[in-house]
Specification:
heterodimer; A: 354 residues; B: 258 residues; alpha/beta; Rossmann fold; three-stranded antiparallel beta sheet; disordered N terminus; binds adenosine-5'-diphosphate; binds magnesium ion
């Protein structure tokens, strides 16, 4: 049963993170997730100290609000142009994170976070922390908080997919049509912040960032439509969660690390093999070059006027091997006729108009 | 102090009435006290050096960037209440063409304003978008990934998107930038057709030599508006020398006489 809940929490976290991370990746704001993962920690600790109640949903909302405020503050600082944009991220968030770590280590109001839990989460233990209502056990608290995040993300996407897509692709058009891209974006960041907070305790900061960015960054290399990117990112995130969980069991280590690693491996595989990945780009280039060679040969020939194989090769200045390859491709594509006896070439009649 | 009586007598409101528009992004004003008035059917070029605030003029008139002061009226109303009658073609380079979507999908974005919040585009919107693609001779590319388009094709996709909006007033930011000669001709004739049908066009244009051929009106801008009027009235050597600080290329023809 514990294993079931561990897996359920991991799966829902993976979905919520991947779906909310996709538009960050598409808007080239992936670093926001990194920033949030740092900024929510002091938020969690402070909200906890204020509510004094670790199970209160207010804790999630308070910490999410804090994360949102931090992100907006950093963006505002960036807009002033006084601080270098990367510096504002690089300085503010680690500072916030260290404040969070400091507060945690002070055991402010008896917070039970440990420093390594902040990074790694405590997915294995999360199922033991139950949500009870009127004496009834409703299952792990973490499951309910990540499910709330997934529900929120899904509702937002169902309602405002069109608006979110428009503002991500062309914020100025969104604005000129009256879709208030600034406000929609802030609302979306609030949802993302809530997702980070809800996922944080179980998954830890590294896994949250990995699940937000890696699946979406992989998906854009495979598919060409925002909906498909969302769908594939969800599938890849689930796959990372299950693979990581399995690896964790086999290697007898906490699952968060292997999950993040799996997401990373899937990204590397995508980078290598996907249609917009490295290998396919190289292959496409080689194919284009091969076709260009065929066209160059054909351009030197006429239908019904055989030319000597060797003299065409000489004109192009190619090696025998390269020229022979181009000719055989041209012949198999029936662009060119090769009379092997006379060692002559001429253009296929159908190719005259090319 | 404000004399509006002369305009209130005219039966039809101006297509675009910009008064005292001032915009800043920081210390310096990017646009200073700009007045621009265009009647319906005007085909106007905004001309001026780099950083003159040409894009800013369009964006501020659309309400995309906030203004420090000034007043904008589109067809006699606040632009916020005229959104469905206004189309915007942003600078081609202002968006990420690696965004995972198709040509048809981008053109359908032109229907979003009519759809309003929450509603998704359906068959109707698809048909409108396909029609606009056909008009821009892009029908073959409907399913094409936008990252695979040439510069001229990207520009025509943006224009198709504006056509779908079926607006009365068109703001265009450098629609001729980076397109080949054939595309340039087709864009020019599109602008001409729109103006003939009574549509109003305000378009940033960087090629001085073609202003008299493609446009009837000109707005000479360098932070402040230096002149607005018909090309014949304002697009002459003296004004251009003043606008560009005497650095106007010699091959710009003398227009005042044409
Ligand atoms: N988003 C922005 N933030 C800060 N400054 C800007 C921004 N957009 C434009 N500017 C500045 O405002 C001035 C006018 O810009 P712009 O309207 O784009 O000029 P143009 O389109 O005529 O080249 C320029 O000096 C430019 O650097
Ligand atoms: Mg500009």
């Amino acid at each position: 049963m514990i294993e079931f809940w561990t897996l359920a929490i991991a799966a829902v976290t993976a979905l919520a993170c991947a779906l909310s991370g996709t538009f960050l990746v598409l808007k080239r704001e992936a670093l926001v997730s990194e920033g949030l993962a740092h900024a929510v920690l002091p938020g969690i600790v402070i909200a906890f100290a204020l509510t004094g109640n670790r199970t209160s949903p207010l804790l999630l909302v308070g910490a999410a609000a804090m994360g949102l405020v931090m992100i907006l503050a950093v963006q505002a600082i960036r807009r002033t142009g006084v601080v270098d944009p990367t510096a504002s991220l690089g300085v503010v968030f680690p500072a916030l994170f260290s404040v969070g770590v400091l507060l945690t280590s002070l055991e402010l109001a008896g917070t039970h976070f440990h420093a390594d839990c902040i990074i790694e989460g405590n997915l294995a233990l999360a199922p033991l922390d139950r949500l009870e209502l009127g004496g009834r056990d409703l299952g792990p608290r973490a499951f309910w908080s990540v499910s709330a995040a997934l529900l929120l993300v899904s509702c937002f996407l169902l309602l405002l997919f069109k608006e979110l897509k428009l503002l991500t692709f062309d914020g100025e058009l969104a604005s000129s049509l009256g879709f208030r891209p600034g406000r929609v974006h802030v609302a979306w960041l609030a949802v993302v912040s809530f997702t980070v907070v809800a996922s944080f305790e179980a998954a830890g900061s590294i896994l949250v960032v990995a699940l937000m960015i890696a699946p979406a960054a992989s998906a854009v290399l495979w598919v060409n439509d925002v909906r498909h990117v969302l769908g594939l990112a969800a599938v890849l995130a689930l796959a990372s969660a299950f693979a990581g969980h399995h690896l964790g069991l086999v290697m007898d280590i906490a699952p968060a690390g292997p999950m993040a690693t799996s997401a990373g491996v899937l990204f590397l595989v995508s980078l290598a093999l996907a249609p917009r990945g490295i290998l396919m780009k190289g292959r496409a280039r080689r194919r284009a070059l091969a076709q260009m060679e065929v066209d160059l040969v054909a351009a030197r020939l006429e239908p019904g006027q055989p030319r000597d194989w060797e003299s065409v090769r000489g004109e192009l200045g190619w090696t025998t091997k390269r020229f022979g390859g181009a000719v055989s491709r041209a012949v198999s594509g029936s662009a060119v006729v090769h009379d092997t006896g006379a060692r002559t070439l001429h253009l296929s009649p159908g190719q005259a108009q090319r | 102090m404000i004399h509006r009586s002369s305009r209130e007598h005219s039966t039809e409101p101006l297509a675009l009435d910009v008064e005292g528009l001032t915009v800043t992004y920081g210390k310096e004003p990017a646009l200073w006290n700009a007045d621009v008035r265009l009647g319906r059917g005007a085909l106007a070029a905004v001309v001026g050096p780099n950083g003159a605030g040409k894009s800013t003029l369009l964006k501020a008139a659309l309400g995309v960037v906030p203004r420090v002061s000034g007043r904008v009226r589109v067809l006699g109303e606040d632009p916020a209440r005229r959104r469905r009658l206004v189309a915007y073609v942003p600078q081609r380079t202002s968006v990420d063409w690696d965004f995972p979507t198709t040509v048809l999908d981008v053109v359908m974005m032109g229907t979003y304003g009519r759809l309003g919040w929450f509603r998704r585009p359906g068959r109707n919107e698809r048909a409108l978008a396909l029609g606009a693609l056909e008009q821009m001779e892009l029908a073959d590319l409907a399913g094409r990934q936008i990252s695979e388009l040439s510069g001229g094709q990207q520009q025509r996709v943006f224009l198709a998107r504006a056509l779908v909006q079926d607006a009365e007033v068109y703001f265009m930011d450098e629609p001729f930038a980076g397109v080949d000669a054939v595309t340039e001709q087709s864009i020019a004739s599109l602008l001409g057709h729109l103006a003939q049908r009574g549509k109003t066009i305000l378009s940033v244009h960087h090629d001085l030599a073609t202003v008299p051929r493609y446009f009837e009106h000109a707005v000479l801008l360098n932070r402040a508006v230096q002149a607005v009027g018909t090309v014949k009235e304002v697009f002459h050597r003296g004004n251009l020398d003043r606008l560009y600080g005497g650095r106007v290329p010699a091959d710009v023809p003398e227009f005042a006489s044409t």
